[in-house]
Write a structure and sequence with these properties.
The complex is a heterodimer. Chain A is an alpha/beta fold. Chain A is 37% helix and 21% strand. Chain A folds into two domains: 12-195, Rossmann fold, CATH 3.40.50; 207-334, Rossmann fold, CATH 3.40.50. The two termini of chain A are 28 Å apart. Chain B is of the alpha/beta class. The termini of chain B are far apart. The relative contact order of chain B is 0.17. The chains are: A alpha/beta, B alpha/beta.
């Protein structure tokens, strides 16, 4: 399954999502010698998901700095390096391991600038990946974006396509703030057209991945692909769903979401993370606060069940929204 | 014991006396309800910050702790801006956003006090990585207490610094207590410096109340780091004169211990004694320095007190950096 970009720019090349990320890293490392990559298994092995493949040969072991398994040491070293003049990109193998590094993410990276009264900048990117769908079970499959969205001082990016992955990673590396860059393990082998050479997608701009008039589906990461498939099925039944990919959760492009809802008058938010306390609640609440009178129905959320991610394939699928679940929820909302 | 020249001896004395004077005044202001939140006094540990920072340039980095006033002063901070921060003024180092536990002075390489025990250790390691990556001869020093040595950040950071031969110096200020837990109940090893061996770096154990001993050990460690020969772990034994925080009832200590050890472990009294005995300077000269410091502190507090209160309207400004 893959998303096709309707408005792909001219000079593009078909790339996998992980290749597109690697392309952004390569170009930014060429452009700025202060950019280094630091993490586990990123050198000869090329990263657990092959994002840094080939970069060791090009940039050497001091800029592709492979580390022991020391999550808080790695993230903390990146914070210190960012405070003092480098622009580190950390690869954390699974977002589930963020718990090991959380103090450095939350109490240090996110807050240093504020606590120091603006004296410091922390230009670092923490790339990691989450999500279910590969039988990795509870400790390697979570969707934890709500953790990071709740922390003042972090930016939060979740790209769904190869082109967005490249453009948003470029913007994240150039940003002077700590950016949490959440990839999805099942997106790495999805393919799409990616602009060649420099490609920047500014943080804070949502993208309408499919236009429609009957309801707005706001979503991100892998659920964008599911939502596009659902929208195609809905179209067969005469329902025109608009799919808004938020791309960056912080800062959030609320204007694009409100603009869509004012057109369709119905909101469905879809995400893989569990529903309770999820970021979908934030979006539903913002729309209710800002566009209540434009709504013809209460905002609806479709999200993960409140369980850890189970192992068995059929169980795993049963706890996160699938294409048919989105179709059903959309019909309930419109019907 | 290395020979310390007159200028260095008097400068070390001046820094230590300034730290003590700052802590005494901060404690007084806290008692007058002018300082909000909490403060952790560095009194008794002055020889460590003074002895180590004497070897650092403005472009060398330090990370500090919740007990951070001493490191800040030894690294060259402005006393007025420090007091202004404690008083919640726009003119404070952190514009009232950080307070005692988060004072930073990046212009002097101070990457901040830290409210998380062990939180600064990986950050200093990252600063040392910057120096190595950019090929400069800068050095990063991390100060932390005996409590932090039992945090995971200590282990991960010292290992990274050792395998990468980073220009870092890790300074454990063993003030005998991790909050209320005595060192003897927190370590099964007698000599904390032995941990260095497990990371493949030199470990040094010094008397942290003797500024000459600290100065000598730190001199070696900083020179080693600057020369690209890798990190060092220093343990400096000391005693915290006050409680963990202002108002600590200190139920975990006896009155005899507090009164006895305060006298026994006073780096400033010790320094006065050898400076006069060795005829480096006279008691009258030292009294003169004391008076200058008292005047400087009075002026700094007065300046801080005149600063405008930090503005809540401007709070969102410092959450994110803009281009």
């Amino acid at each position: 399954m893959q998303a096709t970009e309707a408005r792909a720019p001219a000079a593009t090349r078909e790339m996998f999502y992980n290749e597109a990320l690697g392309d952004a890293l390569r170009l930014e490392m060429q452009r700025d010698e202060r950019v280094i990559v630091i993490g586990e298994d990123i050198a000869e092995h090329g990263g657990a998901f092959q994002v840094t493949a080939g970069l060791l040969d090009k940039f050497g072991p001091t800029r592709i700095r492979q580390t022991p398994i020391s999550e808080i040491g790695i993230v903390g070293a990146a914070v210190g390096a960012a405070l003092t003049g480098l622009r580190p990109v950390v690869e954390l193998m699974y977002v589930d391991f963020a718990g090991l590094a959380m103090d450095q993410i939350v109490n240090q990276a996110a807050q240093n600038r504020f606590m120091f009264g603006g004296q410091a900048r922390v230009p670092m990117v923490l790339r990691t990946q989450g999500g279910s769908g590969r039988g990795n079970a509870a400790q390697h499959s979570k969707s934890l974006e709500a953790w990071f969205a709740h922390i003042a001082g972090l930016k939060l990016v979740m790209p769904s396509t190869p082109a967005d992955a490249k453009g948003l990673l470029t913007a994240a590396i150039r940003d002077d703030n700590p950016v949490i860059f959440l990839e999805h393990k099942l997106l790495y082998r999805t393919k799409g057209p990616v602009p060649e050479g420099e490609h920047v997608v500014p943080l804070g701009q949502a993208d309408v991945k499919r236009a429609g008039t009957d309801l707005t589906i706001v979503t991100w990461s892998r659920e964008v692909l599911f939502s596009l498939d659902a929208a195609a099925k809905l179209a067969d039944e005469g329902i025109a769903a608009e799919v808004v990919d938020v791309r960056t959760l912080v800062p959030l492009d609320l204007e694009t979401i409100l603009g869509s809802v004012r057109k369709t008058h119905r909101l469905l938010v879809v995400h893989e993370a569990i529903k309770r306390g999820g970021y979908g609640a934030e979006i539903a609440a913002l729309v209710a606060e800002e566009a209540f009178d434009d709504l013809d129905a209460a905002p609806k959320r479709l999200a993960g069940l409140e369980t850890p991610i189970p192992y068995a394939q059929h169980l795993e699928k049963s706890v996160v929204p699938q294409v048919d679940d989105i179709v059903r929820a959309a019909k309930e909302l419109v019907g | 014991m290395s020979v310390i020249d007159r200028a260095t001896a008097l400068e070390l004395y001046r820094v230590m006396r300034t730290i003590r004077g700052f802590e005494e005044r901060a404690t007084q202001l806290f008692g007058e309800n002018k300082i909000w939140g909490t403060i952790h006094s560095y009194a008794g540990e002055e020889a460590i910050a003074a002895g180590v920072c004497a070897h650092l340039r403005d472009d060398d980095w330090i990370t500090s702790t919740h007990r951070g006033h001493g490191h800040c002063i030894a690294k060259g901070a402005d006393l007025g801006k420090m007091f202004a921060e404690l008083l919640g003024r726009e003119t404070g180092y952190c514009r009232g956003r950080g307070g005692s536990m988060h004072i930073a002075d990046t212009s002097k390489g101070n990457l901040g006090a830290n409210g998380i025990v062990g939180g600064g250790i990986p950050i200093a390691t990252g600063a040392a990585l910057t120096a190595k990556q950019l090929g400069t001869d800068q050095v990063a020093v991390s100060f932390f207490g005996d409590g932090a040595v039992n945090q995971g950040t200590f282990h991960e950071s010292l290992n990274l610094a050792a395998i990468w031969k980073l220009p870092a110096v890790y300074v454990c200020e063993n003030n005998q207590y991790a909050e209320s837990l005595p060192v003897k109940r927190a370590f099964a090893v007698e000599d904390i410096a032995k941990r260095a061996e497990g990371y493949g770096m030199p470990g040094m154990h010094v008397d942290g109340r003797d500024v000459r001993a600290v100065h000598a050990a730190a001199g070696e460690a900083v020179a080693r780091a600057r020369a690209g020969k890798g990190p060092t772990f220093i343990v400096a034994d000391s005693y915290r004169h006050e409680g963990h925080y202002y108002g600590d009832p200190r139920k975990y200590q006896t009155k005899d211990e507090i009164e006895g050890w305060r006298k026994q472990f006073d780096p400033i009294a010790d320094a006065r004694a050898w400076i006069v005995a060795d005829k480096v300077a006279s008691a009258a000269e030292l009294d003169g320095i004391d008076r200058e410091i008292a005047t400087a502190i009075d002026r700094s507090v007065a300046w801080a007190d005149q600063g405008p209160l930090a503005s809540p309207i401007k709070l969102p400004e410092d959450v994110y950096a803009s281009d």
